[in-house]
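Submission sheet (multi-component)
Chains listed below:
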Amino acid sequence: MDKKNKICIGILGGGQLARMSAIQAYELGLDIAIIEKEFNSPAGQLTKFEYTGWMDDENVIAEFCNKADVVTLENEFIESEKLRHIEEHYHKKVIPSSKTIGLIQDKFIQKTTLKNNNIPVPKFIEVTSKSSYEEIKEVLGERFLLKSRVMGYDGYGNASVSNENEFREAYGRLSKRSDKLMAEAFVDFDKELAVMIVRTSKEIDAYPVVETIQENHICKIIIAPAEVDESIIQKVKRMAIDCVKAVEGYGLFGIELFLTKKNKILINEMAPRPHNSGHYTIEGCITPQFENHIRAVLDLPLGSTKMIKKYAVMINLLGKKTEDDKMKIYNECLKHKDVHLHIYGKASSRLGRKMGHITIVGNDLNKILSKAKSIEEKINL
Amino acid sequence: MDKKNKICIGILGGGQLARMSAIQAYELGLDIAIIEKEFNSPAGQLTKFEYTGWMDDENVIAEFCNKADVVTLENEFIESEKLRHIEEHYHKKVIPSSKTIGLIQDKFIQKTTLKNNNIPVPKFIEVTSKSSYEEIKEVLGERFLLKSRVMGYDGYGNASVSNENEFREAYGRLSKRSDKLMAEAFVDFDKELAVMIVRTSKEIDAYPVVETIQENHICKIIIAPAEVDESIIQKVKRMAIDCVKAVEGYGLFGIELFLTKKNKILINEMAPRPHNSGHYTIEGCITPQFENHIRAVLDLPLGSTKMIKKYAVMINLLGKKTEDDKMKIYNECLKHKDVHLHIYGKASSRLGRKMGHITIVGNDLNKILSKAKSIEEKINL
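Outcome: structure written.
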């Protein structure tokens, strides 16, 4: 990196993850450049260095790379070849690297990589137009998930299958999105867990292990830390660190795991970026995930990942059928003295869209959890 | 306020106080408009709604007021008539109001207002070209401060006087800045204290009382909470609330006080805005001063002002003679796991200029204080 007054972090993508990363970068006195398909994205609003276009518009990429000293991303959907182009043609460091993203963005390659590194994952199998329900069932059992290998998020690209009709319907639907599919054994889990791992050239650290509660395949509630045995916590952290090492990952990673009813831990999937399951860290931990993300991108020393109180609860504010006036929402939510409200500044709401989140930090889990739930119910964003 | 999707707060001024306010506004999904004399100010960098110009450029003011739903400020130097123009001509609420600013910005009027409300202040007297050292000395005693009534900050506009020569020198120097001067009795204080007060139409709340340690008239260190008797704490909070009520103030206020060696409390001065003595609240309290500032400007319910650990220490990073490369500064500072670094993104440094600050939160005051001091020494910003 050049010696100069102001360092600029370029983020590929301008959604809420980029927005919250930008906010933390600003506290550190850094500049932010955003590239996003549409103008005025949640993060684009916050910077003069907003580039509108996408990865195949070489002019826009050139301008963006000219401004950014180092490049990071807020989703794993950009083909790794495009990231390699930024690394090789524009000589910009991309964190996580094109190589790491190449090992993560295709879930079949991701799972294969983890499996080859002796990291426990649910049974999985590639699915092509030639695959039959019977063949898959033989390997995975009667109940399994059909998944898009790429571009899946928040349940888009996933289907639960337990008979041949469901398989045909799901195959027809998912193969329209992408013809690269895979199937994964259904895991009869006790809890879904997640953990954020952050890594620089000198350090690797794990945030607390949290429980994630999904609704319609979308993360709805995070309970930090997860109420599981300390031995499980330690095992989860070790496995998550192994995952990051397996993909030669540097930067910030969200790893989602299953804790089975038999206390077995299996990796569900990993994301090479800030993660919804880590939003609670903004107020719940000494260093927010977004700050450690920025620090890791610059290969700076990492901040403490410890919690500031015993517990934190985060609930996503997902788009509802009706949308209240903003002042009503603020009044409803903020009348609770210890609630932290985050709204992402998206141009419009739609059913189930991640519009914001709330966090409460405290020492009495039941109290903060029921409070957070009752507030979320009253907010129509 | 109109019912609409996005609410915009207009801030008069684009320095670090506006920048940190903007950051908190962004977490709440609000828009920010900044007006500042120069382009690319610390806060102006963070928004598309950056208006370059100042209060006498009616076109710029009109554009700014057209964008902002409500207006606030980051210093008390704008003549109250100009604020009244925004209120009356553009029909925008200004928080704190032109009336409140009119009672604060001239320190002689401020002190007179407080005195008339039976709030204890140091003895003070108006100083004109006709005032003699002997006359002032008769009222205030041998040692006093000569002060600009307006536009003083960080020691600019203050002079300590203890004989006639000093008086003449100080008078000559200060009257060049402004011919409105006052003199104030020297207070032989034990500690300097400060407290942030936040007020809406429905609530008034006090943050913890802190000790402020000045160097060359500039705030250098904040210790939160101040280590004084609980009875003093309560009295300070009551007096600070009285100050805000005396000026009919709504919004956020920083009140600086003297604790004399005889345990008497005197108001030093009040600022109608976020205050350097409240920066520790970003990580030290449940709700940062900047968030409650934004909430109060919108007359929303206030967040908790409680601390999250027993103590917080904040040290200002003032411009030094030499300025290190930014990466060196980041590495030096951030290698301490629990240090929170804030850099304001100012275009250039100069000796004594407020360039950033660090905060450490913890339960052992001596430990965090000596750690913060040793870090500050190594940072050349």
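Remark: Chain A has twelve helices and 18 strands.
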